[in-house]
Amino acid sequence: MTDSKQFLNKIVTVKIDRPIGSKHSDKYPDTIYPINYGYVPNTISGDGKELDCYILGIDEPLNFFTGKCIAIIHRINDNDDKLIIAPESKKFTDIEIRNLTDFIEKFFDSIIIR
């Protein structure tokens, strides 16, 4: 299993599989992604799938994105971490991260790791 903390403050390339405007396919079919969401290829997260990422600070649908891992959302009641990736020049507070990811993260108890 990949340790998500190894990506903190590092440059990461993400494959986007749910670009802005796409619908969540399984658990939350009425949810539309207001931000890009993807994964780090060739990694394994706690849920047995590739390590997921939220992309902040980009307002158009993407296929790939390379940016800095500025934080990690560590879910307490689910064995899955989410990397928070942003352009190197942009900063986000914990409150901003919560607000931007709440469309899915509201269903989980989590902490933000910096």
Evaluate the radius of gyration. 13 Å
Kindly state the number of beta strands.
Answer: 6
CATH class: Alpha Beta
Count the DSSP helices.
Answer: 1
Known CATH architecture: Alpha-Beta Complex
Total of domains: 1
Q: Into which percent range does the helicity of residues fall?
A: 10-25%
Shape estimate = globular
Measured between the Cα atoms of the first and last residue, the distance is 20 Å
Name the CATH superfamily classification: Inorganic pyrophosphatase
Descriptive keywords:
114 residues, mainly beta, Inorganic Pyrophosphatase, five-stranded mixed barrel, 1 helix
Characterization of the model:
- With 114 residues, the protein is mainly beta.
- It has one domain: Inorganic pyrophosphatase (Inorganic Pyrophosphatase).
- The protein is 11% helix and 35% strand.
- It has one helix and six strands; from the N terminus they run E-E-E-E-E-H-E.
- Strands 1-2-3-5-4 form a five-stranded mixed beta barrel.
- The protein is globular.
Quick description:
11% of the residues lie in helices and 35% in strands.
